[in-house]
Amino acid sequence: MRLSTKGRYAVMAMVDLAQNSGDGPVCLSDIAERQEISLSYLEQLFAKLRRGGLVKSVRGPGGGYLLAHERDATRISDIILAVDEPIHAIRCKPGATLGCRGDRSRCLTHDLWEELSNQIHLYLSSVTLGDVCEKRVLGSSGLAYRTAVAAQ
Question: Strands (DSSP E) along 7-147, which ranges?
């Protein structure tokens, strides 16, 4: 399974927003610059995030975006789903009785990939923006990074 830039950029932008919204609304151009994401792409993503109820927009001078909920109440899976990014590792429609093969049968490994999709969704549902902001999600690359920084 590969997560597209739409899902990855939406999560990056939301984490940036969560970290920088303490003093009020954050403008998308600031997020675009900090995260090296196209402003027009961010505008498209934030329109979806706003429709999904994850962010609020503030118009006028000093306007921008705010989180609609607390960091710890916003799950990573909600962000990905809000930008229409499917979380599944199978070709077939998740939960479908018909398969994706030419004769509409399911492939031999269908259940394996469907369960992987379920596990990915469960994991992303268990992680919040707060977890990412507070570095409570730390994989092996994070451990290696911290070790390298500490050695300098």
Answer: 55-58, 64-67
Contacts of 49 (CB under 8 A, 6+ apart): 10, 14, 55, 79, 82, 83
Q: What is the pLDDT of residues 85-94, one digit of tens each?
A: 777 676 666 6
Instruction: Please list the residues that pair with 64 across neighbouring strands.
Output: 58
Q: Which token pair is 112?
A: 């394996």
Domain covering 5-151 in this structure, CATH number = 1.10.10.10
Q: Which residues of 37-73 are buried (b: 16+ CB within 10 A; e: fewer)?
A: beeebbeebbebbeebebbeeeeeeeebbebeeebee
Among 100, 90, 4, 84, smallest CA distance to 47 is for 84
Domain boundaries, the chain: 5-151
Residue ranges for the chain with pLDDT beneath 70: 1-2, 88, 90-96, 140-145
**Model-level pTM greater than 0.85?**
no
